[in-house]
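From the shared-data thread, chain only:
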Amino acid sequence: MEAWEQGLSWQKAEEGLNQFGANEIRASQVGWWELLARQFKSPLVYLLVGAAAVDAILGELIESGVILGIVFVNAGLGFFQEFRSEQALKLLKKYTASKARVIRDGGETIIAAVGVVPGDTLVAIPGDILAADVKWLKTEGLEADESILSGESQMVEKSVGSQGLSGTSVVRGKGFGLVTATGKNTVWGKTAKETVETVQTSSFEKDIGKFSKFILRIIGVTLALVFAVNMLAKSGTVSWTELALFSIALAVSVIPEALPVVITFSLSRGALRLAKNKVVVKRLAAVEDLGNIEILCTDKTGTLTENKLALAGVWGEKEKVLWLAGISCLGTGHDPIDTAIWESLPKQTQKKLQVEVAMLDEIPFDPVSRTMQITAKWKGKKWEISRGVEEKISIDSPEATKWSQEMGLAGKRIIAVGVNGRGAGLMAFSDPVKSSTISAIRNAEKLGLAIKILTGDSPAVAGSVAREIGLVSDSLLVIRGDELDKMGVKEQHTAVEKYAVFARVTPTQKNKIIDLLQEKYRVGYLGEGINDGPALKSADVGLVVDHASDVGRDAADIILLKKDLKIIVDGIEEGRIVTANTRKYLLATMASNFGNFYAVSIASLVINFLPMLPIQILLLNLLSDLPMVSIATDNVDRHDVARPMPFDLKNLLATATVLGIVSTVFDFMFFGLFFKSTPATLQTAWFMGSVLTELVFLYSIRTKKFFLTSRAPSWPIWILTGLAAVLAVGIPLTKFGAEAFKFTKLPTESLFLVFGVVAAYLATTESVKLWYYNWRKN
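Structure, as tokens:
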């Protein structure tokens, strides 16, 4: 045995790891101090710190201290949520760690890719992404895709002595390579340091960016007008510094500054909940993308069925067919069919095959021809054994055709075996449907999610399984890949919508089906092989199982630790919950904040003092934002996840405008009721009423139904709204409130008047909400 065939010893590998370090290209790590500093890198924070500095210069030390206190409290809340999100991301990365196949102490084993060291013998088969740079020591028809480095899509043939580069993928054959460089010392490491983590921007993130710019433009124009008019009207009664602080405070009150925190917290919380259910996201935005899927394209085997194949029957000379099939199991790749064949053989036959048969060559399974081939030597003769679908290994016998049709209609998977270019026999395999599949199909229907099967199996088998799980009413409602290819473009569009089962499809045909569906729908695709890469990248969301090829894992957005339709459907529901709660936050902040923003702005133009002091507006913003951050934890009504709800800015603005008008009307009601009171009384009453109306509005806007008949809010919402309400009523009653925020103690009748208006506001906004959603529905 040559030295490389023995590989490194585990002890030598450990020494190499200490000497060369882990085989990884480290992304820049974000420390807690950077997260904390990030909370202060905002134009809003700069404005507030500037305002506090101006107050301090003018001698208003208490007001300056309160403003800075509010800045630090907001920063603390943001830091806490972002820190939790970062911890969630670190946990998720552990789930998606890459693997490598190496030889250690003479045996082939799979280890974490970070543990590969120079001197290791790396074993590469189709679907692998090389974990390190290697010098090829032995190759068997080895071809690699190096387009990630060269940009050229042509496959590169590899021979002994040539170089294999980290990050490139194996397309065909098999290779044994001596590891020459790892981590940052590889060719990939030297070119990828700056781009080790590429950031993908989802459609949701782009829409949020547009929304933020739109809000800032409206606020900027409004504040400029308010400041200018107030300067002209109040030049003798209010100083320009106080007006500037008032304008800054108004801007802070209406800008949804907690939006990034809410989105990050919602997505990371959703990602962790998915991970507990064996669904791991590679990027946080994929959680929201998953929720927006309208069609899920999936394979049959292992997703809908158990993928526990058992030999159910043999046509032909049984002993000969099983012997030939046994030889086909001696190759390097092992799939469930290999396992089922091998387990059906007597122990004595297994030993005989291993001792008497010598492997000469192997052509791994080709997803286009759907066959594989083994060349072996037995009893001094050369045998070419082929195994695959019956259409490719012809058996000219009416009895074989009849047997195959009967088995296919019974849901059995048919595999043909040939020797030296001639068909030798057929084997039938049973693969029972998972117990969870039927309930998952029903749940998918409730979510408005269409399931389509894309499989290489025969139409009879695919149709039988689809009928058993309730996906189709007739097992003949199946279309073959070659039938689809013969259609015109218009017919193809009709076919991909009409049919739920596509049989005998190649990877290219799968990609075509997904492309056609994407012209009208958002599509998810579940694949696992090297040839699924294009389809995984084409789909809006690509999903693979944990044991998928490296190429498949690299192309996917989501990795499943268990291949089961139920966990995918549950994941889609979780994604919709995240989207629904983010929409709630946007609606709540836009409607209530804008209503208050315009009411205070207009009121400032008709009285000779400020309707609410800058420091009071900042406190109002802090107290109303406190429970808003917890909205990511809220429970969601069934109708909110019944169908995809992609971000719709126009719809959001229309709803917020209607409900914002109600908020503005009631703000003016507070203004009218306390108009003749002292400035301090008006400011205190309006502050208290504004906080309480925003809090009750949250309970209304969190559901499209009557709020008392919806699902109960999550406990963080109960606690934080209760705390905010107590502070809103309690602070104005204290000496601290009078000194720090210029509040005054309201008489009992004024307090009851405020509570009465808040109750009337809840009743009115709830009525308008129900009317509006009913009107939209009709």
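The first helix runs from residue 3 to 6.
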